[in-house]
Amino acid sequence: MATALANDGAYSFDPRVAVEHVRASDPVLARVIDAVGPFRLQLKRAPSSFAALAEAIVYQQLSGRAAATIFARVCALFPRAPAGPTAEQMRRVSDVQLRGAGLSRAKLLSLRDLARRVADGEIPTLAEARRMKDEALVERLTVVRGIGRWTAEMFLIFRLGRPDVLPADDYGVRKGFAIAFKKRGLPARAELERHGERWKPYRTVASWYLWRALEGATKARALPSRPGLR
User: Fold this and answer.
1) Staple 13 to which of 163, 164, 209, 218, CB 3.0 to 4.6 Å?
2) What are the pLDDT digits (tens) for 3-23?
3) Which active-site residues does the annotation give?
4) Each residue of 137-191: pLDDT tens digit?
């Protein structure tokens, strides 16, 4: 039987309690939990909500390696900001410099809009975000050009460690659900949300294990076949 890591204060919930709740509520996910092992969601630190959201914008629709390269080039434009640029610094850099770092026109405009809204006080600070309810925060973040519900949900999960987020439009969560529950196709959003009711108030934990279910299936397919075995 898998056990969760102890809560070191990084999460806003007790992972042991959360894992046992999900296990008890869903026998299929209980088997996934036993196969995967401890809950090891890694939170990503950021000096500000602007830095976290700027990175998220750059990473959208790119492979991790390509996004990391471009984001590093963007950060290199601000040598006096080792923790990453601030909204004010981003507003002062030229379009030519940002495009030269590899940003698409759409992402440049998104970063400009984010920087303006942060400077104007429209986007909550990290301290303010931690005090806000999930849906209220999603509503505030999605006013930014290029930030949709999925990006806001990733912010809730990986930056704030919120316990009850189900990114029902996320391909990995949907595919992991299909694998775990032996579905022929990807579940519709409504089906996933309906089934996910049983995981409340720890749908983040369930989502993490669904990601791991997909990861495990992908690794299994990548293994070379052994002679004489089917």
Assistant:
1) 163
2) 444 344 478 899 999 999 999
3) 170
4) 999 999 999 999 999 999 999 999 999 999 999 999 999 999 999 999 999 999 9
CATH topology for the 49-159 domain: Endonuclease III; domain 1 (1.10.340)
- The encoded tokens of residue 57 equal 């914008």
Amino acid at 210: L
In this prediction, residue 6 carries a pLDDT of 39
Question: What single string gives the DSSP state of each residue in 22-83?
Answer: HHHH-HHHHHHHHHH-S----PPP-SSHHHHHHHHHHHTTS-HHHHHHHHHHHHHT-TT-TT
Query: CATH 1.10.1670.40 region(s) of the chain?
Result: 15-42+164-222
Q: What angle do CA 27, 32, 36 make, to 5 degrees?
A: 150
CA 194, chain centre distance (Å): 21
Q: Give me Rg for the CA atoms of the chain.
A: 20
Residues 6+ away with beta carbon under 8 Å from 130:
12, 160
Domain at 15-42+164-222, CATH from 3.20.20.140, 3.90.79.10, 1.10.1670.40, 3.30.1120.10: 1.10.1670.40
In order of 49, 112, 167, 184, 205, the CA distances from 156 in angstroms are: 11, 22, 10, 30, 13
